[in-house]
Structure formats: structure tokens, C-alpha cells
Design goal:
Layout: H1 3-7, E1 10-11, E2 22-23, H2 30-38, H3 43-49, H4 55-70
Antiparallel strand pairs: 1-2
């Protein structure tokens, strides 16, 4: 699947979850998916917890997060 097709799976709408990025057609945020992976969940674990998700939905969340971080500026404390 192309990058563009994956990113179309993510929606940012102020009327849904206060504008946090979510998987299209759900109220499941990218943040929740990425956090679960950070704590050791596998794609299979996430799909078991959220059976309405596809593997591409999980990949889209990771790609969206990576793209978001690529444009973030970090300042030394």
C-alpha cells in the first residue's frame, strides 16, 4: 500500500475526539495505537483488542506518527 493510501486512513476532525488523529470511521486515536506498540503490543495484539482494525490501519497510525515527528522542532532545555 502506498504512503498516500495509508495516510488517507487517518482523519483529523475537531468534532471527533477533540481533533486528535483517529483511524477513519472510528474513535480510536493514533496515540493509543502507538502507545500500545511502545509498551510491547504486537500488531496481532492490537487487532485482537480492536477487531475492526486492519493491519494497514495500524501501519497508517505508525506512519502518521512518524510523519508528524519529522516536522517537530526540538529545543534544548
Amino acid at each position: 500500500m502506498t504512503e498516500k493510501a495509508l495516510l488517507k486512513r487517518i482523519v483529523v476532525d475537531p468534532k471527533i475526539m477533540l481533533g486528535k488523529p483517529v483511524i477513519r470511521g472510528t474513535r480510536l486515536t493514533v496515540e493509543i495505537i502507538v502507545e500500545k506498540i511502545a509498551y510491547g503490543a504486537t500488531f496481532a495484539d492490537i487487532r485482537k483488542d480492536y477487531p475492526f482494525l486492519t493491519t494497514d490501519d495500524v501501519r497508517a497510525a505508525l506512519l502518521y506518527d512518524a510523519k508528524s515527528l519529522a516536522h517537530e522542532e526540538i529545543y534544548a532545555a
